């Protein structure tokens, strides 16, 4: 059996953070639409846990905005990840918390 992840978040806080990140992306690049979805609960190995889509007139704006969005999401949105193994579970910190230590 694959080792799943368990993703936990406080939805109101995560929604505010994602909205702020999207606002920043809109102010930095000429983009039309943004879609962000993040899986909650158990995620089997190999399954998608986050989806980001950006529409823009110019490819560079869309690609740069996507990179910014995923990097900021991983660094700042309060999503807690628990790796589940047959012999126990381990909570993993987000990128921002790792950089602070």
UniProtKB/TrEMBL annotation:
Q: Do you know which CDD domains this protein is assigned to?
A: MoaE
Spell out the Pfam families in the cross-references. Answer: MoaE
What SUPFAM superfamilies does the entry give?
A: Molybdopterin synthase subunit MoaE (SSF54690)
Report the domain of life of the source organism: Eukaryota
GO biological process annotations for this chain's record? molybdopterin cofactor biosynthetic process
Give the PANTHER family listed for this entry. MOLYBDOPTERIN SYNTHASE RELATED
This chain belongs to the protein called Molybdopterin synthase catalytic subunit
